[in-house]
């Protein structure tokens, strides 16, 4: 049996482990304080409310910063490492600021077979950014997701909470232009 060898790499420097800092403490608004208190009544323990609390925090602050992780851990009497573990596991939580419109392109088998690669190229060109980037004006972020469970719409993307598909290069142009008009 091999003895344990300490890794030479500091895993906290990996992109996948990064959580950006907001730079100041956070606190729920009065309205979300009430929502949080109501959430607690729906779960048997505070720990069981970690997902909806994080979702509420992301809705209010826009993303999950190190300060949000610390705040949620205090609210739920959990170690920050536990809250971080949840945040880093679920792709629905953003660990850096995102654009107003988060374009998530499905790159799973059905979408790729139906032209997802072409749609990705169109999005990159139209937005002027690559995957995991945000436009300079903060309007768009682009990322790929493994599956959005809407194969009948392939190739498709989710923009914030709305599904769009089947997408064509012309459809991508129309979608981006309509979002730009919304501002």
TrEMBL record:
<dbReference type="InterPro" id="IPR036249">
    <property type="entry name" value="Thioredoxin-like_sf"/>
</dbReference>
<keyword id="KW-0408">Iron</keyword>
<dbReference type="GO" id="GO:0051537">
    <property type="term" value="F:2 iron, 2 sulfur cluster binding"/>
</dbReference>
<protein>
    <submittedName>
        <fullName>NADH-quinone oxidoreductase subunit NuoE</fullName>
        <ecNumber>1.6.5.11</ecNumber>
    </submittedName>
</protein>
<keyword id="KW-1278">Translocase</keyword>
<feature type="binding site">
    <location>
        <position position="151"/>
    </location>
    <ligand>
        <name>[2Fe-2S] cluster</name>
    </ligand>
</feature>
<dbReference type="Pfam" id="PF01257">
    <property type="entry name" value="2Fe-2S_thioredx"/>
</dbReference>
<dbReference type="GO" id="GO:0008324">
    <property type="term" value="F:monoatomic cation transmembrane transporter activity"/>
</dbReference>
<dbReference type="InterPro" id="IPR002023">
    <property type="entry name" value="NuoE-like"/>
</dbReference>
<dbReference type="GO" id="GO:0022804">
    <property type="term" value="F:active transmembrane transporter activity"/>
</dbReference>
<dbReference type="GO" id="GO:0098662">
    <property type="term" value="P:inorganic cation transmembrane transport"/>
</dbReference>
<keyword id="KW-0001">2Fe-2S</keyword>
<dbReference type="InterPro" id="IPR041921">
    <property type="entry name" value="NuoE_N"/>
</dbReference>
<feature type="binding site">
    <location>
        <position position="106"/>
    </location>
    <ligand>
        <name>[2Fe-2S] cluster</name>
    </ligand>
</feature>
<comment type="similarity">
    <text>Belongs to the complex I 24 kDa subunit family.</text>
</comment>
<dbReference type="GO" id="GO:0098796">
    <property type="term" value="C:membrane protein complex"/>
</dbReference>
<keyword id="KW-0411">Iron-sulfur</keyword>
<dbReference type="GO" id="GO:0031967">
    <property type="term" value="C:organelle envelope"/>
</dbReference>
<dbReference type="GO" id="GO:0003954">
    <property type="term" value="F:NADH dehydrogenase activity"/>
</dbReference>
<keyword id="KW-0560">Oxidoreductase</keyword>
<dbReference type="GO" id="GO:0022890">
    <property type="term" value="F:inorganic cation transmembrane transporter activity"/>
</dbReference>
<keyword id="KW-0479">Metal-binding</keyword>
<dbReference type="GO" id="GO:0046872">
    <property type="term" value="F:metal ion binding"/>
</dbReference>
<dbReference type="GO" id="GO:1902494">
    <property type="term" value="C:catalytic complex"/>
</dbReference>
<keyword id="KW-0520">NAD</keyword>
<dbReference type="GO" id="GO:0031090">
    <property type="term" value="C:organelle membrane"/>
</dbReference>
<feature type="binding site">
    <location>
        <position position="111"/>
    </location>
    <ligand>
        <name>[2Fe-2S] cluster</name>
    </ligand>
</feature>
<feature type="binding site">
    <location>
        <position position="147"/>
    </location>
    <ligand>
        <name>[2Fe-2S] cluster</name>
    </ligand>
</feature>
<dbReference type="InterPro" id="IPR042128">
    <property type="entry name" value="NuoE_dom"/>
</dbReference>
